Structure formats: C-alpha cells, structure tokens
Amino acid sequence: MLYAILAVMLLPLLTSAHTFSYRLDPHAEDCFYDDISRAGLRFYAHFTVLEGTVQDVDLVIYAPGDKIVYETYATKERRILFTTEDAGTYRLCFSNRMSTQSTKVIALTVNIGDPLLPPEAGSKAIGVVESSILRITEGLKSIKQEQEYLRVRERVHRDTAEDTNSRILWWGLLEIVLLVAMAGGQLLHLRRLVSKERRV
C-alpha cells in the first residue's frame, strides 16, 4: 500500500505536460525545446491553428543531432505520438513562412513520459494495486487531453459560426439597403415616365 501511495505522489514527476497558445507572425519560424531524460519515453503533441486567414502551418520535430522525427506541411491540426529513441533535447519548430500577412494563433499541447513504465519498473516488480493506479492515472490523463482537444475544437467551431453569422447579418442588411435604393430609383424613374406622358 505504501508503494501505491508513493507511486501516486511521484507520478507528476514521471511525466511532463505543457499546454499553451501563442502567436506566430508571418514569415516566422518559432521553435520550442524540451529535454528528454532517457530514451523510450512517449512523446505526445497536439496542435491546432485557432486564428489566421488561411489556418495552416508547417511543423518539424527534431531529435538530438538534428535528426527529423516528424514533419508536416500546410496543416491546420495534428496529433503526433511517437516513442523517443534518444535522450537529449527535442525541438518542435513551427513555420509560417508561406503566409505574407496573416498572423496565426496556435494552441499546443506537449506531453512527455509514460507513467505505465516508471523508471524503477525494471528493477522492481510492480504490484497489482500500483499497476492499476498507474493505468487509471493514464486513463484520466488521456481523458483530460481529449477534453482539452474538444474545448479547442469547440472554440474554433464557435468562432467560425459567429463569424459566419455576422457576415450573414451584414450581407442581409446590405441587401435590404440595396433593395430599398432600387425601389426608390424605380419609383423615381416611373414618375418621370408618367410626367412625360402627361405633357404629350
């Protein structure tokens, strides 16, 4: 039981998670660095472009020694999951080089570690309770990640719907003004025609 309590207390130290959003300027490339303590850790990253006229960016993930682990181009959203092969500094580089004027807002979640395989798992046998606690914790973590993903998706879709609604409103008002102007113009034209016919 003591090991189960220690496992739950030390679990946040076994994984590292970061979630944030930031602005990526036109023609810019921004990189984020994360030090990986050992090989064989799970590396999970999820990004979504929240704002920008054309909502796409390029992403390249480099392992130590500038080895490309993953790359994608002109992507609006992506989930990446791989196992680290080397210990060292991993680099996530986002590029907005194709955009000439549009600043992009990107939401990024990075989660590194695997609580199902703690560092001392090789030296000691994990008990049933400890293993169950680690599996439950991993399940809760993936539920939390999925909720964050759904929140971001809901925000993007709500912004799109509000933008569409405002465009429809302004277009409708413009149509009303144009119809009233056309009706007024037609009335004036008919009055002139009728007044000319009376003179004849």
Structural write-up:
Helix content is 42%, strand content 34%. With 200 residues, the protein is an alpha+beta fold. It has a single domain (2-155), classed as GOLD domain (Jelly Rolls, Sandwich), CATH 2.60.120.680. The strands form two sheets. Strands 1-8-3-6 form a four-stranded antiparallel β-sheet. It has a four-stranded antiparallel β-sheet with strand order 2-7-4-5, with no helix packed on it. The chain is elongated, with a radius of gyration of 29 Å. The model is unreliable at 1-14 (pLDDT under 50).
Considering the chains and any ligands shown, give keywords for the structure:
disordered N terminus, 2 helices, Jelly Rolls, elongated, 8 strands, 200 residues, alpha+beta, four-stranded antiparallel sheet, single chain
Spatial ordering of strands, largest sheet? 1-8-3-6
Q: CATH topology, anyone?
A: Jelly Rolls
Helix coverage percent? 40-55%
The total tally of domains equals 1
Number of strands: 8
Shape: elongated
Brief summary of the model shown:
This protein has 200 residues and is an alpha+beta fold.
Explain the layout of strands and helices.
Elements: H1 2-14, E1 16-24, E2 29-36, E3 42-51, E4 57-63, E5 67-75, E6 77-83, E7 88-95, E8 104-112, H2 128-199
Antiparallel strand pairs: 1-8, 2-7, 3-6, 3-8, 4-5, 4-7
